[in-house]
Specification:
about 15% strand, two-stranded parallel ribbon, alpha/beta, about 290 residues, SDR_oxidoreductase, Rossmann fold, seven-stranded parallel sheet
């Protein structure tokens, strides 16, 4: 299908735009000249109400559910029908749940994976043919420092973000030959309403765990967050204008502190267990340097 008008503007397709970092990115992008934003949301009225009316002509708000593959396909089809291309994709839709592994139900774990991982994969699957044909494009996958390190009572959220981090590393290798840039963003705490709107608690509560204390701890992190959402958006926009962007970016001073400690601890653990690791080789296997 030929587009209604093939725009020369830069076209952004962003999921999770009713609040938080996704909404902020839309709010910043619509102010830029030669830019069109497709805001994917389950709550179009809410998204529209938070965008300055003088910039509404620069945004197309589409109601879609990333967990529904047909819904995603239709939203991409509508985008292409209107603009004829997609330049930048931001997979931002996601939520969190607090609860120890024993407290979490299959339903709760599957639901968070449906949004955080499979929803992202639905988008990637259906934008990739377009970007491959264009031989260009940027895919930003929003993970988290929680996608690298484990946190108690956060197993479902962490594991879903671990999956995003792993998938993104693979996509980068698969898609770079086609001129597609795949970038993993792993922020630490940013000022947003994520705890209020994007975080829930396991229905099954077990007194032995400190799930309630974990909620308070997360509240403290958000209330004292150093991350500036405007600077997050500015960074994403700047990266989209970089012909050779980094593949993996940690965002926030706290992210750097946490990841340095984590990587250091993992390296130390590996060295500590070196004898165990190499003991599993065949006796006759050629010796290699390690």
């Amino acid at each position: 299908m030929e587009p209604i008008h093939k725009t020369t503007d830069r076209v952004w397709y962003i999921t999770g735009t009713s609040s938080g970092l996704g909404l902020n990115l839309v709010q910043q992008l619509v102010k830029k000249p030669n830019t069109q934003v497709v805001a994917i949301t389950r709550n179009p009225t809410e998204t529209q109400s938070r965008i300055d009316s003088k910039y509404l002509e620069n945004v197309t708000i589409i109601k879609a559910d990333v967990t529904n593959e047909e819904s995603v396909k239709e939203s991409i089809k509508e985008t292409m029908a209107k603009f004829g291309k997609i330049d930048c994709v931001v997979n931002n839709a996601g939520f969190g749940i607090i609860g120890a592994g024993e407290e979490l139900s299959n339903e709760e774990i599957r639901k968070i994976f449906d949004v955080n991982f499979f929803g992202l994969l639905n988008v990637v699957r259906h934008v990739t043919p377009i970007l491959r044909e264009q031989k260009s494009g940027y895919i930003f996958n929003i993970s988290s420092v929680a996608g690298w390190l484990g946190l108690p009572e956060m197993g479902a959220y962490c594991s879903s973000k671990f999956a995003v981090s792993g998938l993104t590393a693979c996509l980068d290798q698969e898609l770079s030959p086609f001129g597609i840039k795949v970038i993993l963003l792993s922020p630490s705490g940013f000022k947003s309403n994520f705890v209020d709107t994007g975080m829930s608690i396991a229905k099954n509560r077990i007194d032995s765990y400190n799930t309630s204390d974990r909620c308070k701890w997360i509240d403290d992190i958000v209330n004292n967050a150093r991350g500036d959402p405007d600077k997050f958006s500015e960074t994403v926009i700047n990266l989209s204008e970089n012909e050779n962007p980094p593949k993996n970016v940690f965002l926030g001073t706290h992210a750097i502190q946490l990841m340095r400690m984590w990587f250091s601890a993992q390296a130390a653990e590996m060295e500590k267990n070196l004898d165990i690791s190499i003991s599993t080789d065949y006796e006759h296997a050629p010796k290699i340097e390690y």
